Amino acid sequence: MLNTTLKTNTLILRRIAAAILDYGFVIGYAILLFGLVGMLFGFDQMGKMEFSPAAGQLIAFSSLTLPVFLYFFMQEKSAKKATIGKRALGLQVAMIKTSSNHSQGILIRTIMKLLPWEIAHWGIQWLAFYVKKEAAPPIWVWVVLIVPQVVAFFYFVSMLYTKGTLSLYDAIAGTKVVRQDAKV
């Protein structure tokens, strides 16, 4: 019983630590991107740039979300089946049914994992639009900002509930996170 509890807690902690490492890379990339844009256009000009919400969303998607999507997708569909964070902590992504298409499962997993993030970006673009116009954002903007946080909370709770093996996006994609030494 104690050994099972220890393995469960270790899997949860490993998964959280792997996510922290992976998102550390994402934050590092975002800082690098911010610095590059600041050097190209001038840091003092960055706050003065105005884009429509659609243009801002397109810029954010192509410069931040798409590279992050490709990082997770390419790493987890590779032969190692793990991002740098997961590899560092001895984890990998496996299919719940071994006969399932791994690449397709990873594609769905990555889309579902990052969808709340992208929806929140959309809300931020609209919030900035209304703030610059000195207008109160409509309620739907707040809904678009809050719903992704609620979804992310459920992702985390579902991972805890399944003792680190599945999150809600894993269940949708037919994937699970296991130790690298586990028989899949």
TrEMBL record:
<dbReference type="Pfam" id="PF06271">
    <property type="entry name" value="RDD"/>
</dbReference>
<feature type="transmembrane region" description="Helical">
    <location>
        <begin position="139"/>
        <end position="161"/>
    </location>
</feature>
<protein>
    <submittedName>
        <fullName>RDD domain containing protein</fullName>
    </submittedName>
</protein>
<feature type="transmembrane region" description="Helical">
    <location>
        <begin position="55"/>
        <end position="74"/>
    </location>
</feature>
<dbReference type="GO" id="GO:0016020">
    <property type="term" value="C:membrane"/>
</dbReference>
<feature type="transmembrane region" description="Helical">
    <location>
        <begin position="20"/>
        <end position="43"/>
    </location>
</feature>
<dbReference type="InterPro" id="IPR010432">
    <property type="entry name" value="RDD"/>
</dbReference>
<keyword id="KW-0472">Membrane</keyword>
<feature type="domain" description="RDD">
    <location>
        <begin position="12"/>
        <end position="174"/>
    </location>
</feature>
<keyword id="KW-1133">Transmembrane helix</keyword>
<keyword id="KW-0812">Transmembrane</keyword>
